[in-house]
Amino acid sequence: MKNIKYILLALISTFAIFSIQSCDVTDVTDVTLQLTIDFDPKFEDRSVPDSSIEVVNLEDYPEYNDNKDDIEDAEILHFNYSINDIKTSDNLPIDSIEFEKVTFYLIPTVTDGGNRIPGQRYKLGEFENLKVSDYYKTAKHIIEVGDDVGKLISEQIKETPYFVFVTEYSALKGENRDNYFDYIDAHVDMVIRVKTSE
Amino acid sequence: MKIIKTVLFLTALTLVLPSLMKAEFNEKGIFEISSDFSAFNSENFKGYTKPLFTTIGQGAQSNLFSVANYNDSYSIGLDISLSSTIIPGSQGTYNAMLPAAFGDTSIMDNAIYKNGQVIRNISGTVEQPTIYGGSSNAIYVVSPVAGGDPADSIYKTIGYNEGNNISTMASLPAIQLVFGLPTQTELRFRYLGAPIDEEMYNHIAVSANQQVDQWFDLFEKDDNMALAIHGSYQFMTLAETIDMNSWAAGVHFSKGFGDGLSVYTGIQLEDLGGTFNVARQNGYQEEFYISGTDELKPFNNVPTELQAQYVAHVAARRDTENSPFEEVRLLKPISFDIETFTNWRFTVGGAYEYGIMEFHLDIGYASQMFLNGGLRLRFKDWANNSEIEN
Questions:
Q1: CA B312, B316, B320: angle at the middle one, nearest 5?
Q2: What pLDDT is stored for residue B14 in this prediction?
Q3: Separation in Å, CA of A100 to nearest CA in chain B
Q4: From the CA of A94, how many Å to the nearest CA of chain B?
Q5: What is the DSSP letter of B20?
């Protein structure tokens, strides 16, 4: 009999612990989405080293517009950088174009009296020895953004849908280091984790 | 995401008071979501929610029995119980369907970033979290790979919904009316109904327990043992959107130890099935399309009475025209057959009877392990034509 009582006591204790720790349906209906955005940073009529600046407006994405008032947290997880097209003034073959480094930065913005004010610049990541031919229309060059920088977007996204994405091109490797580019048509796909609460 | 939340809520409503649900039903009684809902197609929503339906099914078929010794008298009572399930890690992921062209390197280059690794040109299915799982993995897509403008391509980077990192899940209290019959039979009834918008959510459950050992003289009376069979049928409906039914059948055994203490065990076969159907606003109608194709008919070829809807449908398609999933692109409904992981469960527990009360607590092994506990009150018992007051 004692054993049975112990078994029952163990069952009761286990049940109590699990009941307390159990999630309820409000947890089930929390929604965390990976919002995918894409934009085409253009570097035009300039010599390297220099940067392209792309102002990203999240209002271009219906998922953001539908939920912007309920966003609790947001975080840039990672992004893919590829090149759609490129042309130097002296028509260098693609295979011969190699940057020492391409670095990406995020500049969160805040709104003050209707004006957008860019904040500090934060490094998202970089590729070294970037051979253009390896980056031509491919999905394989993914940069994981660190938590500290990725989460910077969380607060600003509640105030303004804009952030600035900077692509900083270094000088080229080899000869023609400060080559003039008619254009570099890049493409960036970015994944942003968005959690909402109502 | 409000839409996703609403759809998930709809799915979860057998676990929560349905009156909290905010839903909009169309004139056919089908829950309708806006046309720009592109997060899921039917197949992936089915995989994402299958563990939730498993919890719903297991919750519905829990607490069907306790001690197998049923009095040979009329009785009436009430049973109130709670259950909590433990979600196994294997139900934290499902194989999400990828659009058909994925893997075709003449159309696209794709890559998934998972655990710090880049895996390229995946096709078929990809592991993603269920509603109980963790982080999802977006798939990067660059298309076309030669010529053309990426903006015109329907193949773009796609994200999947994340899970909620849930390892244990409580279900709603189950309140049952319990009737005893002199044939050593016990009948149990549950009902939960609530208005949602202008429709009614109904959950009706009927179960029966029949002691059988006395028919075969299996045990001596002094053994204080009993054997019974049980069965249950339940259905849950919400207009034309949810139509679920669940059944269970099994056998259970108990042994008493005097002083009101008993232990019991049982095994049962069970299933939950049905259909889930959600329409998209200005959604797909066969009459809008050339038979057997996804090409829209010319306006003049659409029946006159449908032309206004046709125009609205064409306009609504602009929101989803870049989805890689045909179902989403054509605004077809989210519709699937409900399935669960659970078919068998083994239960073991204990009960303590004191006066009109019986406390019972059991643990079950099924695809989701569960703990179930409750209190049964027996208000009246009529035996041998004389009323017994408890």
A1: 160
A2: 42
A3: 23
A4: 15
A5: G
A 7-66 residues with CB below 8 A of B? Answer: 7-8, 11-12, 14-15, 18-19, 21-36, 38, 62-63, 66
Task: Point out the residue among A30, A63, A142 whose CB comes nearest to the CB of B164.
Answer: A30
Nearest to A15 among B108, B141, B373 (CB): B373
Q: Give the three-class secondary structure for A5.
A: helix
Q: Which residues of chain A have pLDDT under 50?
A: 18, 20-21
In this complex, is the C-beta atom of A187 within 8 Å of any C-beta atom belonging to chain B?
yes
> Could you tell me where the DSSP H helices lie in chain B?
2-12, 42-60, 307-316, 326-329
Per-residue pLDDT, A119: 84
- How far apart (Å, rounded) are the C-alpha atoms in residues B171 and B370? 10
Beta bridge partners of B376: B79, B358
Question: Of all helices (H) and strands (E), which one includes residue A9?
Answer: helix A2-21
CA triplet A124, A130, A131: central angle to 5 degrees?
A: 150
* Contact call for residues A186 and A131 (beta carbons, < 8 A): no
* Residue B371 to residue A82, Cβ atoms within 8 A: no
Spatial contact of B259 and B289, defined as CB atoms under 8 Å apart: no
CA distance A164 to chain B (A): 21
Residue linked to tokens 């299933």: B271
When the pLDDT of each residue in chain B is averaged and rounded to a whole number, the result is 88
**What number is the ipTM of this complex?**
0.87
pTM: 0.87
Please state, in angstroms and as integers, the Cα–Cα distance from residue A159 to each residue in A108, B248, B317, following that order: 11, 53, 31
CA B328 to chain centre: 23
* Residues B226-276: tens digit of each pLDDT: 999 999 999 999 888 889 999 999 999 999 998 899 999 999 999 999 999
Closest partner residue to B361 (CB to CB) among A15, A80, A189 is A15
Q: What's the CA gap between B183 and B377, in Å, rounded?
A: 20
A78 shares contact with chain B (CB less than 8 Å): yes
In angstroms, what separates the C-alpha of B174 from chain A's closest C-alpha? 15
pLDDT at B18: 34
Cα gap B207→B188, rounded to integer Å = 5
> Measured between CB atoms, which of A11, A33, A194 is closest to B363?
A11
What φ, ψ does residue A26 adopt, rounded to 5°? Answer: -65, -30
Structure tokens at B92: 């934290």
Q: Which residues of chain B are under the pLDDT cut of 50? A: 14-23, 388-390
Spell out where chain A has E strands.
Answer: 31-39, 42-47, 50-57, 71-88, 98-112, 115-118, 122-131, 142-144, 162-169, 180-196
* Pair of tokens at residue A27: 């947890």
- Most distant CA pair in chain A, distance: 94
